[in-house]
Design goal:
28% of the residues lie in helices and 24% in strands. With 479 residues, the chain is an alpha+beta fold. The protein has two domains: 8-307, Pnp Oxidase, Chain A; 340-449, UbiD C-terminal domain-like (3-Layer(aba) Sandwich). Strands 5, 7, 8, 10, 11, 14, 15 and 18 form an eight-stranded antiparallel sheet that branches. A five-stranded mixed sheet has the order 20-21-22-24-23, with helices on both faces. The protein has a four-stranded mixed sheet with strand order 1-2-3-19. A hairpin with a 5-residue loop joins strand 16 (277-278) and strand 17. It is globular, with a radius of gyration of 24 Å. The chain starts with 7 loop residues before the first helix and ends in a 7-residue tail after the last helix. It binds flavin mononucleotide and manganese (II) ion.
């Protein structure tokens, strides 16, 4: 069942049809001005923005395309993000093969998945124009915040191949534009792109797509295990395979429906100062050494749209992309940790700084076991604070989590501090990429966990009295 969009512009048409896209005809500056406009609109819950007249470039700039729950749902063709979680759960559920009939019935579902792997095509809109003299200065790349080290490409789909396994990866890693032919490649060392370069002997070919259908753009941000191709996830999300085309100068396939493709390479040992950059933590990420991307070819549509995102102090657009991941990955987390009932990555925690988890606790120390498991799972290893609460606490309600946890915690017994990898953006860690993480066991403690006294119940009125007061409410003359 195809429910996705062919490309970015088909999605924009859908947005516009609902009044969720505004075209800005006034001439605007990609240096700071577009950021300030977008930041205000996102924080006010406003629409996607298409800036049609951008100083210094002939191409329009799209921002805030995913900047609300409504928009990420529309982008992925679902009513609510929990629908996606349910689909993943169905997919993972082992078919009940009690009879031959059941076996046969399960077959089409699997076949359907096989059909969602990306498909190679020959002619592609993203190659309508092949630039003879590729020049990044023609792109309306945003200089986002005052202390930024330069302009940054903020919504790139970075494609590379693992030199050992041949597996493809797509990741979203920002790119600071140094000049017309070179940029930074800000893949953190924990990410797959960085791993590919580590494993390469010298030169690693890289292609970068700007634009594409919205599911493909989202998939580049998804923290998938290396064995899963992000384009296949995109195919699953859009209900139809992603179309790929062979790049012109590198041995990689790129999304046929993208707006721009940058082809080039990075090399072992070829590093340059990258940053600072006003980041999604709400602080500037510090300047550091990162690989240099060398552009060898630029292809594009005849009339491309330049997609960008503005990150900064939350809430910004990336928060909503993160919520897609939260909902999509909950069923996967539950496969490893069936006691997990729900999770919340609150906006203020910017993904890696805070994870709230509710569990069905069955044995002593289970909350601590869940923390350690999370610190051992993919990119969740970077979570700086994990709070675990009991089943009845709604982790989507920050006030409820705080109330339960503040009450239930004894510092010596319930806090876990571990050393290990932390996010590259963690400016509080004493060393880059390495620091301490905190787990807080906010569950009710059991005698088997060493509590020598009775544990009190939370206060609740008896149901009879609640009903009585509801019935008599008018009599009291209080409203
Ligand atoms: C808007 C946006 C910008 C991002 N920028 C970076 C970045 O510059 N460097 C980085 O390592 N991860 C960045 N990420 C997170 C990665 O895209 C994410 O961790 C993804 O899983 C990386 O792909 P990989 O798991 O295949 O390495 C960004 C995410 C978003 C939504
Ligand atoms: Mn990956």
């Amino acid at each position: 069942m195809a429910r996705g969009y062919k490309d970015l512009r088909e999605y924009l048409t859908a947005l516009e049809g609902r009044g969720w896209l505004r075209r800005v005809g006034a001439r605007v500056n990609p240096r700071l001005e577009i950021t300030e406009i977008t930041d205000r609109v996102t924080k006010a819950g406003g629409p996607a923005l298409l800036f049609e007249q951008v100083e210094g470039s002939t191409y329009p700039v799209l921002t805030n395309a995913f900047g609300s729950m409504d928009r990420v749902c529309l982008a992925l063709g679902v009513e609510s993000l929990d629908d996606l979680g349910r689909e993943i759960r169905d997919l993972l559920r082992p078919p009940e093969v009690s009879s031959l009939w059941d076996k046969l019935r399960a077959l089409p579902r699997l076949a359907e998945l096989g059909n969602l792997a990306p498909r190679l095509v020959r002619n592609a809109p993203c190659q309508e124009v092949v630039e003879e003299e590729p020049d990044l200065s023609r792109l309306p790349v945003l200089h986002c915040w005052p202390q930024d080290g330069g302009p940054f490409i903020t919504l790139p789909l970075v494609i590379s191949r693992d030199p050992l396994t041949g597996r493809r990866n797509v990741g979203m890693y920002r790119m600071q534009v140094y000049d017309s032919r070179t940029t930074g490649m800000h893949w953190h060392r924990h990410k797959h792109g960085a791993e590919h370069l580590d494993r390469s002997k010298g030169r690693l070919e890289v292609a970068v797509a700007l634009g594409g259908d919205p599911a493909t753009i989202y998939a580049a941000t998804a923290p998938l295990p290396a064995v899963i191709d992000e384009f296949t996830l995109a195919g699953f999300l859009r209900g139809a395979p992603v179309e790929l085309v062979k790049a012109r100068t590198v041995d990689l396939e790129v999304p046929a429906q993208a707006e721009f493709i940058l082809e080039g390479y990075v090399e072992v040992g070829d590093l340059r100062r990258e940053g600072p950059f006003g980041d999604h933590t709400g602080f500037y990420s510090l300047a550091d050494e990162y690989p240099v991307f060398h552009l060898t070819c630029l292809t594009r549509r005849g009339d491309p749209i330049y997609p960008a995102t503005v990150v900064g102090r939350p809430v910004e657009e990336d928060y909503f992309l993160g919520k897609v991941t939260e909902r999509l990955f909950l069923p996967l987390l539950q496969m490893q940790l069936p006691e997990v009932l729900d999770i919340n990555l609150p906006a203020e925690g910017v993904f890696h700084n805070c994870l709230l988890i509710s569990i069905e606790k069955r044995y002593p120390g289970q909350a601590k076991k869940v923390m350690h498991a999370v610190w051992g799972l993919g990119l969740m290893m970077l979570t700086k604070l994990i709070v675990v609460v009991d089943a009845e606490v709604d982790v989507q309600d920050l006030s409820e989590v705080a109330w339960a946890t503040f009450n239930n915690v004894d510092a010596r017994r319930d806090l876990v501090v571990v050393d290990g990898p932390v996010d590259a953006l963690d400016h509080a860690a004493p060393l880059p990429h390495y620091g301490a993480k905190l787990g807080v066991d906010g569950t009710r403690k059991w005698p088997s966990e060493g509590i020598g006294r009775p544990w009190p119940d939370p206060i609740e009125m008896s149901p009879e009295v609640r009903d009585l007061v509801t019935r008599r409410w008018k009599e009291y003359g209080l409203e």
